Fold this sequence. Notes:
The protein is of the alpha/beta class. The protein has helices at 19-30, 73-82, 102-109, 156-162, 175-185, 207-216, 220-226, 231-237; strands at 8-14, 39-45, 62-66, 88-91, 96-98, 115-123, 135-136, 152-155, 189-200, 203-204.
Amino acid sequence: MSAGAPEIAVVIPTRGRREARLAAALEALAAQTLERDRFEVLVVRDPDVPAPLAPAPAGLTHRLIEAPVPTGAAAKRNLGWRATGAPLVAFTDDDCRPSPGWLEAVLASADGADVFVQGRTEPDPVERHDHWGLAHSQLIEGPSPWYETCNIAYPRSLLERLEGFDEAFPGLGGEDTDLGLRAERAGARRRYAGEALVWHAVHPQRLGDALRQARQWGDLPLVLARHDEHRAALRYRAFLRESH
């Protein structure tokens, strides 16, 4: 770890269309029980976002990184972890609110360069009863076959060894599963930390939202092609993936 580097960095990719939710995520990070000088936050967004980033809460170590060209989530996450000297990198999304003890729980579960940590994710209790009809969120209550980046942390050295997320995955979906499977293939172990809780936004499921979500599954064949040994499990669980 370089001199003065924090113990853990949080990387949040954003497309600039969720400013209010991103502001809530930053407020949640400012409320962490972990001392603020022990972590930093990196928000990575496209260069063509016209709106200024919402001001970070006072005292939160926070950097904005602009991608050189509009790009997908995999490339944004790579820009984020490569910009930090922290030995541990936690990933979440711009529609998530980490619970106050999230980072402390992640650090408590971390164990060297060959262990990565997946936390618990639940639908945001503030929003889960606000929507009638179809809605979408995330529910992760144990080790998931998808290795979702809404709540996962990797040693930076492991990310370097694996060369980060595969940017051949163009959109949202697939790159997180691919990285988790490659990490385990390389000998790393995943540790589930139920105390590392993140609340995921509850999104109304309109037709356009359903179509976008369906397009994300378009990356599933690429994951299956690269990880044939997991083909049966991933194809089966694709129809059982927990979302609320």
